[in-house]
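Hey, I'm writing a tutorial for new members on how sequence and structure tokens pair up, and I'd like a real worked example in the thread rather than a made-up one. If someone can provide the structure for the chain below, I'll link this post from the tutorial.
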Amino acid sequence: MPIALRMPALSPTMKDGTLARWCVKEGDKVEPGSLLAEVETDKALMEFECADEGVVARLLVEGGAKNVPVNKVIAVLAEEGEGKQEVEKFIKENTQEPELKAAQGESSQGAVEQGESLAAGAVEQGESSQGAVEQGESLAVAAVVEPPSVTPAATPWARRLAENHSIPLQSLQGSGAKGKITAQDVNLQLGNAAPEYSQKDSQKDNQRRIFASPRAKARAKEASLGLENIVGSGEQGRIVYQDVEKALQATSRQGGGQGGGQSYLAQSIGEIPAISPLETPFEMRPHTSMREVIAKKLTLAKNTIPHFYLNIACNISNLVEMRQQVNQHFKKNAEKNNRQPLKVSINDLLVKALALALERRKDANVAWQDNGLKQFLRVDVAVAVAIQGGLITPIIRDAAKKPFQILAQELHYLIEKARAGKLKPQEYNGGTISISNLGMFGIQSFQAVINPPQAAILAVGAVEKILYQNDDKSIVQQKRMIASLSADHRAIDGAVAAKLCAEFKSIVENPIEIILG
């Protein structure tokens, strides 16, 4: 019996996804573990592996298809000895949506009932007339057999524009969502083949509403030019000034006159640029799954979590100097062993510092729930990483216990996977606190939005050189960084959050704790 391959649920929140591309083609032999396709979830690009053995008989969903529901049959495997007829029968039985079957059944039943009522009505009106009965029966048959007329889906502007130019919607191919006909499709048809108008058509068109800018109407009136046969290039097919000028120039060339109604100004300076439509031009891009999830989570966070914010300035001069020494040490060791050296970043050290601070202030390592306060028993730090189309937060598990060198290696690996869209759900789900760093963009400070269900996030700004006066009145240069903590006031009190910030400041200003921790 053929095997149905269904759209997998590759994350807990996944309801549908994008089938980015097929890694097999029809006729390929596959076995358990074979890579079938790449699927884009609401978080990352995941690999879909085969769990059975067989031959790829049919691919039912094209590569690149979006919003494919979870559990939808996307391909069929054939086992040894199974032919095309068996595969086609299996597809017919297993791929039709249950809702569609039910709707078709109800539609047929409704049509039969309608036909029966018509027949019964005919009999009641003329009980003695056999012809009435036959008429009722014919109506019943017609009600069952005749399919309903289908009107092509089109936007209101497209319908109005097509009606104004006597273009049947059935003759157009829609380029909008799900094949919907847009005004651009109608304009394209007009541009490819402008209709020839008879005198009767012209009189009919004069009675229709023509959409034109005030300046275009004034120019056409001045030149005694009708707007009926001018194809508009503006928004939704609207006639603009430039369209009228082009029509006047065409009239001038055809008539061989000196100006063809053009004003002296138009002849002197050439075409005048059209006035922009009132609505700013734009193009509508569909939301990605990731963008929709980000929107839902952050809207939930701002609407349900009572944020409060604390800022603290940290002198990280010693941290910057220690980083340089550590990288020099790693470079020397790598050269001796002929390996690629690990390059530790400021962000790596800050992640470790935050983990140590949260481990020491366990009363801040919590999350709010309606039935109680969740106290976490280890520190998992989520690191915000900007990727194409959004952001994602890979997790460093048990970050406070890991040596900073191991932590840095793991973080670099996860960031590389995140930017390639290859993170697995277990690598980005969870976390007890988040950290977001925009310092590389020159941002001095910012307040981040808490990532639910967490209760806090630390936002880190740029490193700046400042002049600072010591207690002995001497002036020294410092490297200063501002860290801003956003906290959930339901779970974390102000004093608790302040102690966490002070602990973080102490660690980054005495960075030897990062090495020893």
